[in-house]
Amino acid sequence: MDQKVIVPVEAVLTKCVALPVGYVPTPSAPYREHRKHAQLTLQPGTPRLSSAPARKTAAIPVGSRVLIWKQDPSVSELGTRKAFLPGLIVQGPRDARITFGEPGIAQVSPNAFGDFIVSPNTDQFDAVHTFAIVRMTLTMFQRALAVDGTAAPLPWQWNSASNTKPLRVYPHGLPNVMNAYYSRSDQALKFGDFIPSGATERVYTCRSLDIVAHETGHAILDGLKPNWLLSNNPPQTGGLHESFGDLTAIFLALSQLDQVEAVIAQTKADLHDKTFLADMAEQFGLALGRPNGLRNADNDIKLSQAGTEVHAISQVFTGAIYDILADIFDHERSPQLEDDAAVLLRCGDYLCSLVLRALLAAPARAATYADVANHMLALAQADGRTAYLEFIRNSFIVREVLRTQADGHGEGDGAPAWAADAVDDEDAVQDRRACCGTMNHAEYSESDQLFDAEREALAAWCRDYAPRHD
Ligand SMILES: [Zn+2]
Questions:
Q1: Are residues 188 and 291 in the same domain?
Q2: Percent of the residues in the chain that have a pLDDT greater than 90, as a whole number
């Protein structure tokens, strides 16, 4: 009788536990040799007849695995995870639309499998993580605007028929700066790092999925609506830009299977329960002394409470969309028939597409919340999602974006179906002080033009009065 060898379960567990965090097997030379041998001897395959259709094989393996933070390093419950990026990515990492190439940080080369797997808390990890989040965000919106099975290219603001330059990412681009921004003139996203007062550990904004997604949202919206970012627009237009950044982070989280599962488990399927989904940028927020992250999507702020402060106004729109998400999810869920996480994934996907299409349909300049709300209603109607109309209308009425029907504003031909409630004063000026680095960047304000008069006077004086040296 054979004597079975019994391996104590502790030995197996100890071995597994000893593996480093974020462990991903990489191909060693003996492993590759073993695979090659096994394929030749153990898996001969079926002989192919000349009439049999050839198997579709790619000339080069397309797609890479990367290791990313699920939220940011402070959300230790989530940690890191592998993700698969389906397009071709080469050393950098870079692809046709996004490139990493920061001076002082060595480029990352793919391993033998074409993957970019590096240890967390290193420069290379930051490069891969930042690239990956920007890539996932762009892909998500390209899918959201897909037409007839083809993803939309979604240009960067500077792209044209003769300029297809990519967006550059600088994960350590702003040393000792407590901020991050998208710069049109640099054609780049730059991320700061800093040591919070009273702390010893440096916080890297590029390690936050929310912050990277937020800044990528600014870059994507700037490609679609170049006028909206300029500070001479009414406060609500600025609010749309800032809110789109936050919504981008929410939609990106909702597009990831593991994250929707975690949201469902953590909140017991109640999206108004406190969850990391509604808490933006945990680590960054904690560093600033805000317990609920940088800003909270699940809020009750109304337009009349926000004034001209763009960050507060942005929360009104973000909060309205978040409420609509919760209502749609409540309406769609049916735990007896379908897993809640699968339903939430689908709801997030639809709302992402609806919001993006409504923003795209809004005016090229001075767009208001009511413009976008009305386009959302029209598009949802056209999509046959009539059950959602009430959620959208109610949410925007509560936020004082749309007036109630009782005010006598009914549906009109071609005109906005619902009149705006709170509107910006004609001469209202945006107050961007509490916004992110993008909104405070000088290139989007008229401040430089204020120097023009002084420059002209200087030039005139030099021309007419200055002593001549010749
Ligand atoms: Zn922003």
A1: no
A2: 48
Distance 439 CA to ligand 1 centre (A): 6
Q: In this structure, what CATH number is given to the domain that contains residue 162? A: 3.10.170
**36-50, 78-92, 151-165 — which is least confidently predicted?**
36-50
Pair 303, 353 in one domain: yes
Residues with Cβ < 8 Å from 212, sequence gap 6 or more?
A: 129, 130, 133, 134, 137, 180, 189, 191, 206
Instruction: State in Å: Cα 187 to ligand 1 middle.
Output: 16
Domain extent, residue 306, equals 225-449
Same domain, 118 and 95: yes
CA of 246 to the centre of ligand 1 (A): 8
Are residues 85 and 206 part of one domain? yes
More confident residue, 349 or 67: 349
Q: List, for residues 367-400, the tens digit of each pLDDT value.
A: 999 999 999 999 999 999 999 999 999 999 999 9
Q: Which residue blocks in 60-208 are alpha helix, DSSP H?
A: 123-144
pLDDT mean over 77-104: 89
What would the pLDDT profile of 343-353 be if each residue is shown by its tens digit? 999 999 999 99
Ligand 1 mean position, distance from CA 310 (Å)? 10
433 Cα: distance to centroid of ligand 1 (angstroms): 11
Residue 146 vs residues 109, 116, 200, 313, 371: alpha-carbon distances, Å: 31, 28, 46, 30, 23
